[in-house]
Amino acid sequence: MHKKVNAGTNENEGLQTDEYQRYLELSNQIAEQSPALVKGWDAQGNAILNLGSSADEAEAALMRMYEAERRAANVEIAGNLQASYDGFAK
Fold first, then answer.
1. pLDDT values of the chain reduced to their tens digit, one per residue, 90 residues
2. What angle, 0 to 180 degrees and rounded to 10, lies between the N-to-C axes of helices 17-33 and 55-89?
3. What are the backbone angles phi and psi of residue 39, rounded to the nearest 5°?
4. Alpha-carbon gap, residue 70 to 52, rounded angstroms
5. Is the pTM here over 0.85, yes or no?
6. Residue 13 contacts by C-beta under 8 Å, 6 or more apart in sequence?
7. Fewest CB within a 10 Å sphere: which of 15, 27, 70, 88?
8. Is 24 within 8 Å of 10 (Cβ atoms)?
9. CA distance to 73, 78, 79, 83, per residue, from 87 (Å)
10. Are β-strands 38-41 and 47-49 bridged in parallel, bridged antiparallel, or unpaired?
């Protein structure tokens, strides 16, 4: 889908209407979860993502963001373990 949307403006360059709407929805969901991938916003307020020029680059960028978020969640869980144990042990 990404190849049929202008990477600088989010303009549709060949997708069916429903495909384009789905593309915008997915882009906005990714932007919400991974703000570091947003390179700008289009005139309608939809996220323009910086996913690279190929599917491999996009996949790698998404995987890096996923791993960083996973590690951050693990740190948060580890930080709460003592408090959880203290609450359970009482």
1. 667 889 889 999 999 999 999 889 988 988 888 888 899 999 999 999 887 766 666 677 777 777 878 888 888 888 777 777 777 766
2. 50
3. -105, -5
4. 22
5. no
6. 4, 5, 6
7. 88
8. yes
9. 21, 15, 14, 6
10. antiparallel
